[in-house]
Amino acid sequence: MTSQVLRSYIGGAYVPGTAAEKFANLNPATGQVLCEVEIAGAPEVERAIEAARAGFLLWSAMTGAERGRILYKAAQILRARNRELAELEVQDSGKPIQEAEVVDVASGADCIEYFAGLAASIHGHHYGLKNAFAYTTREPLGICVGIGAWNYPLQIACWKSAPALACGNAMIFKPSDLTPLTAAKLAEIYTEAGVPDGVFNVLQGDARSGRMLVAHPEVAKVSLTGSVETGKAIMADAAKTLKRVTMELGGKSALLVFPDADLKQAVSAAMLGNFYTQGEICTNCTRVFVHTDIYDAFLEQLVERTGKLRVGDPMHADTQIGALISRGHMERVLGYIAKGVAEGARLLVGGKRVSRDGLASGNFVEPTIFADCHDEMAIVREEIFGPVMSVLRFSEETEAVARANNTRFGLAAGVFTRDLARAHRVAAQLKSGVCWINNYNITPIEMPFGGMRESGIGHENSQVTIDYYTQLRSVYVELGDVACPYE
Ligand code: NAD
């Protein structure tokens, strides 16, 4: 960052933009301007492509072991600067420091470390054939574009860049215009760790900058974390040049709590899966289906514990609920709460904006619980992306599964039961990319992460991601004669 103006990071340095347009980056908790951000236009996109092209030549010529060593160093730098980066993330995103300090930077570093370790093991196969053999090689795609959402800005930048770089690609990353700060820091860290200039570039800007990147014919792949509508638009644009896509999109996930569940654990999971990061998590279990036998007991514990959650300045160590990302988003969330009331859902806790103790200049909303919800309510059908939980009653396993699956989304799901057979039977039937049994929202780097249906295409994390950032080439080697019927 150069003083108060944040510029795009291209070819190993911040470059002054040619575009006159800037936007103000606000702290969601205070409304204060953190910096001005230059919007990348066509000249910056071309410059980033040129830098990435040069970076790719150098980087892809290195061995996986060499790349891994450098990436490992980047992970170490991230960990060493955990507090500083966490604070920056809090200012930019409004999430509580108690979360950012243990999750955001660490999970980014975990990811870089993991793919640093895999880089040397990327390989093809050998196929023995009759008087011949064939082999495959796994090759990088070239220039990949990463486009991020604003809820986990640094983590998303790491989850996309780590596998891309480990496989030998170059990346141009465009963070959300609401959270531009930490991806730029990641670029600095990659440079410090020894990643050659141009291998990881950050283009600042809004949807227009993103569109230009997606349209560019030299870009081989686009990985988006964002909403379903943006995913569809990007896929349509990417189709024009037949680019590969990975789509991590929205959801309206269900948690099923059976009567034999450990109630305290299930309540903990429902709270974590609705109120962590002020509810701004794509996988959140915003539809909590509770069996009728334990419905009242579940609600009692849930209401009691949710009432104790501390909303406040995200920089305070004991704050548990921070600020929503923007004024517009807060209005949208409050609009859904009003809709829930109008639709006849029973408001048990929260429901209001918080403006006491100087919080009025930020975007704070109370953690909110609706009970007695019905499947057709807007709060049950649509992604709210805020601290709003809908609780629904069920009596039969088959009914709960059918209702959980009755959505266009398919990102995540959860099952709470002590019955092993039921847990796996239900998990097998839920149409979601991820299903947690007796926990929720845990995303270890070893486990593939991705959505089904309109929640996404492809995965992040785990070994499978190597397939998404490489292309397979086959080579056939003849050891005999060409079988030729011609004279
Ligand atoms: P968004 O779709 O509005 O924007 C995401 C990114 O796409 C931004 O960087 C934006 O500038 C860019 N963009 C928008 N239109 C574009 C276009 N036509 N071409 C190129 N780029 C474009 O999403 P958001 O509001 O930033 O994030 C919230 C959404 O993200 C929610 O729906 C949430 O569920 C989803 N999300 C999904 C995951 C996941 O892993 N599945 C994780 C986090 C967030």
TrEMBL record:
Q: Name one GO molecular function term.
A: betaine-aldehyde dehydrogenase (NAD+) activity
Q: Which Pfam families match?
A: Aldedh
> EC number(s) for this protein?
1.2.1.8
Q: Where is the active site?
A: 248
Which keywords, in A-to-Z order, does the entry hold?
Answer: Oxidoreductase
Source organism, top-level taxon:
Bacteria
Specify the Aldehyde dehydrogenase domain's residue ranges: 16-475
Q: Which family does it belong to?
A: Belongs to the aldehyde dehydrogenase family.
Q: What is this protein called?
A: Betaine-aldehyde dehydrogenase
